[in-house]
């Protein structure tokens, strides 16, 4: 029987929805940083209608769990939870950074990717990924939030060529320019739900799901409100 997974992501400037039915992916995507709440549900309706399915026909619902915009991550999870509750679906949180690694493979066949999203406050959300034979990805460097000038010290110094992804490379070009790895500039700037559904399939096969009420974000920067206050961590 064909696996059916719906994915929703609004964690960055890109708003996207995708539906995996067996090996076929139906998707919608638009860079619309201020209109996520207006666009995401119509996108859900469109992909379901295109596939001739309803929410209750699905096996799971995936969502972009972050890191990304605080507001964007909350919007995406809130909408995904509403859909999940309504159809009693198990939920799967997918890393936005890992999704950009998958996008580089989908578009260009790249299997070593370093993803960096502009985290504001002179920091980036970063993750370094290598594709496995199974098609899933291993985090060589787990996702974290870090000043750009410290990234070079953290990355795995492999002789492989690493493809860059995300807005962080353009936003902090000066701070990231000292990295001594063999880097290839990539053109993937944002995560997309059509890559999240592929990653979600691996998670579903391993039983890595949660109930809708347990769906939670990954912000990485938990103490953002105290960041610039003297005497605070």
UniProtKB/TrEMBL annotation:
Cellular component GO terms, alphabetically?
Answer: cytosol
- One family from Pfam that matches here is TsaD
Q: InterPro entries, from UniProt?
A: ATPase_NBD, Gcp-like_dom, T6A_TsaB
Q: What is its main location?
A: cytoplasm
Which gene is this protein's source? tsaB
MF annotations from Gene Ontology? transferase activity
Q: What is this protein called?
A: tRNA threonylcarbamoyladenosine biosynthesis protein TsaB
Q: Which GO terms describe its biological process?
A: tRNA threonylcarbamoyladenosine modification
Q: Which PANTHER family match?
A: TRNA N6-ADENOSINE THREONYLCARBAMOYLTRANSFERASE, TRNA THREONYLCARBAMOYLADENOSINE BIOSYNTHESIS PROTEIN TSAB
Q: Where in the cell is it found?
A: Cytoplasm
Report domain Gcp-like positions. 30-153
TM spans, by residue?
none
> Looking at the record's lineage, which domain of life comes first?
Bacteria
Keywords of the record, alphabetical order, are: Cytoplasm, Transferase, tRNA processing
Q: Which family does it belong to?
A: Belongs to the KAE1 / TsaD family. TsaB subfamily.
